Amino acid sequence: CIVEIPLLYDRSLYPWIQRILLVTASVEQQGSRLMARNGHHREHVLKMLAAQMPDSERRKIADDILENTGSLEALEDGVRALYA
Prior knowledge:
Strand order of the largest sheet: 1-2
Mean pLDDT: 90
Low-confidence stretches: none
Helix content: 40-55%
Oligomer: single chain
Number of strands: 2
Shape: globular
Strand content: 5-15%
Largest sheet: 2 strands, parallel
Radius of gyration: 14 Å
């Protein structure tokens, strides 16, 4: 079973979860994607990202990390490799 928790910040809240996968990208890429997807202005996007847990902290609770810095195909390849 896979559970998507976009803003997971405390692993202990979900004791039944066996592994945590973090899919991450640079702040610049996250901002660009949010602006393109939701039409938000840069200032709004920066405030949204600043309100979230820093990537360095999310990495500490992750068992696996996929860098989403390239194409969708590259991300899919990473998912397939992890699944295998």
